[in-house]
Design brief:
single chain, five-stranded antiparallel beta sheet, 445 residues, 15 helices, alpha/beta, binds zinc ion, binds nicotinamide-adenine-dinucleotide, six-stranded parallel beta sheet, Quinone Oxidoreductase, Chain A, domain 1, 2 domains, Rossmann fold
Length: 445
């Protein structure tokens, strides 16, 4: 039995906590009496390790008074979805609808929602927050205490995150936004209204990428003049590079091993790149970064890759044998590369435990290692929206393709294999408006 399913069984035995104030485990409206029997929709569902499919499901209905049903006009795929596809994140069930980044049009509102009306354009945050618990009051929405009652997460981590859309039963079990409709619990706080001058193709990315990258930069502490190194040149890494410069970094060096580094160079000529697959004999990422920075190392290092991507055989086998869930290679590289008393932030997803962690270098050289956490979107999305309106940030820079929801299963595999120059995609549905200016043309598969 795959670990993902074993974990789900354990959680079923343990039972849920009693902290959640919104219904748990509604990952597909066709189950659990959560759909409207008279209306159907298309959605992307997880069908087992390595397998996703476009399925037909019932349109979700209002179940709680603060629910909003959103008619989805834009969705996308995140590096985090690959961790679900690979079964690295536990507790998925066959048929679970994925997707945690989406925008659309308000279709229906529950009786207690007074700030949104049918027809309004909105974007959802990837996390589901209640709006008034200890963390929500501080806008630390990703750590809401009232939307996820998973006991396994609580036991493993000593605390829980908020519930999340399309991100397994481990985070509450909520149907996601890679669908034609999505139910948004606490819709009055988890939806941000989009103004007319911000098209979906820009506003969509307020769900996750923009807030996550911004948080990675400010939470790790990038200051004016800093040299910043970033591991992972995917969409999150690219925006983190962009935002490091906006926050005053004097230099940004991106570490990865594929064509994305060329993509970065074409969009950001002033960003330096380090291809670890092209290192010479006796060279390492750390030795190369020292060489580039007066032998001292970057002031700040940010992890935008993930713990499931082992580089060497040792960690590959340890993970395969269940001796660890995540590799420590990238974090160790960050620690040894960073200058003494510098800071390292981890934004890429790590699930559980790791071996061979270089605690000595961390302690002796005074490295500050920061778990950036799931990013608290509500803390940043108003100001990021304003920055889009002012032209300070351009989310379309990272978007490589526009695709259709009905092709999304094929897109997952292309995104996974980094084929066709694919990175951030804009997924349109039958409800989308024609492509906005600057958006790539439609690719069908
Ligand atoms: N903390 C949060 O709130 C949050 C939110 C969104 C995404 N994430 C996570 O951020 C990470 C990046 O997301 P993305 O959408 O850009 O993903 P992505 O999969 O598109 O990009 C990841 C990049 O990391 C690179 N990489 C893999 N191993 C590497 C290594 N050893 N050294 C350097 N680079 C390496 C890959 O080649 C790839 O280009 C993912 O783990 C994702 O789950 C976190
Ligand atoms: Zn994401
Ligand atoms: Zn809350």
């Amino acid at each position: 039995m795959a670990m993902s399913q074993a974990a789900l069984k354990v959680e079923k035995v343990l039972g849920h906590g009693d902290n959640a104030t919104t219904a748990q485990d509604i990952t597909n409206p066709s189950k659990d009496n959560a759909g409207d029997p008279s209306d159907k929709m298309k959605a992307l569902a997880w069908m087992g390790k390595g397998k996703v499919e476009i399925v037909e499901a019932l349109k979700p209905k209002v179940m709680e008074n603060r629910d909003v049903i959103v008619k989805v006009t834009g969705s996308t795929v995140c590096g985090s979805d690959l961790h679900l596809l690979h079964g690295a994140v536990v507790e998925l069930e066959k048929g679970d609808i994925l997707g945690h980044e989406f925008c659309g049009i308000v279709d229906e509102v529950g009786s207690e929602v007074t700030n949104l009306k049918k027809g309004q354009r909105v974007v959802a945050s990837f996390q589901i927050a209640c709006g008034d618990c200890y963390y929500c009051k501080q806008k630390l929405s990703s750590q809401c205490e009232k939307t996820n009652s998973n006991t396994l997460e609580n036991a493993m981590y000593g605390g829980r995150t908020a519930g999340m859309f399309g991100y397994s039963h481990f985070t509450g079990g909520f149907a996601g936004g890679q669908a034609e409709y999505t139910r948004v619990p606490y819709g009055d706080v988890n939806l941000l209204s989009l103004p007319d001058n911000v098209p979906d193709e820009q506003g969509l990315f307020l769900s996750d990428v923009l807030a996550t990258s911004w948080h990675a930069v400010v939470d790790t502490g990038v200051k004016k003049g800093d040299v910043v190194a970033i591991w992972g040149a995917g969409p999150i890494g690219q925006m983190a590079a962009d935002f490091s410069i906006l926050n005053g970094a004097s230099r940004v060096i991106m570490v990865d091993s594929n064509w994305r580094l060329d993509y970065v160079k074409s969009k950001y000529p002033n960003i330096e790149t380090l291809d670890y697959s092209a290192l010479g004999k006796g060279e390492s990422v750390t030795s190369k970064l020292k060489e580039l920075t007066n032998n001292r190392g970057p002031d700040i290092s940010i992890e935008c890759a993930a713990g499931e991507y082992a580089k060497g055989w040792a960690h590959y086998f340890e993970m395969l044998l269940g001796l660890e869930t995540d590799t420590s290679e990238i974090v160790n590289e960050m620690i040894t590369s960073t200058r003494n008393f510098g800071s390292c932030g981890i934004t890429g997803v790590y699930v559980g435990f790791t071996n061979h962690f270089n605690i000595g270098s961390l302690m002796e050289r005074g490295i500050r290692l920061i778990g950036n956490g799931q990013a608290p979107v509500h803390k940043y999305w108003d100001s990021l929206l304003k920055m889009i309106q002012d032209g300070q940030i351009e989310p379309l820079k990272m978007v490589s393709h526009r695709v259709r929801l009905e092709d999304l299963d094929k897109v997952y595999y292309k995104f996974e294999n980094k084929e066709d120059g694919m990175q951030k995609v804009y997924v349109e549905t039958r409800f989308s408006a024609p492509a906005a200016k600057g958006s790539p043309g439609l690719t069908t598969y």
